[in-house]
Amino acid sequence: MSSSARTSRTDARRHSFSIIFQLPFHQDEKNQEETLAWLKTLYYEYLEVAPIGRDDEYIDRVIWGAFEKQAQLDGVIENFLKDWALDRINRVDLALLRLAIYEMLSEPDVPLGVAVNEAVELAKIYGTDDSPAFINGVLGNVSRHIKETGRG
Asked: In degrees rounded to 5, what are phi and psi of residue 92?
């Protein structure tokens, strides 16, 4: 790696999204844990930037948490889809939803509105023209539900 730099939480979230997005393309790998670690290393080498300190810890927590809780996160997504099936969601939107819902459920220092807004902003960059509204709609409903029932 040729350089190292501190990232912002927004950058750390973008890095997490990129790694979470790539994992389904490697589902046939024998050892998913090794695959996830390999993806993280490969991604950082490509960027030639390695997040450090709290940002690296955050990325690790989020990518591993989203990986380990994928079935739970997908269940939450399915509960808030209207006339839509999980397998019809494009991969970018699905990765963004998994990331944001993981944060909403498991990262108490991340305000619900921040998780929603950051996912919408990433959808504007990486998703389709319809992605921001779709992401906002699903996450807005999830956020309201969490406010009513709590993060647990």
From this structure: -65, -50
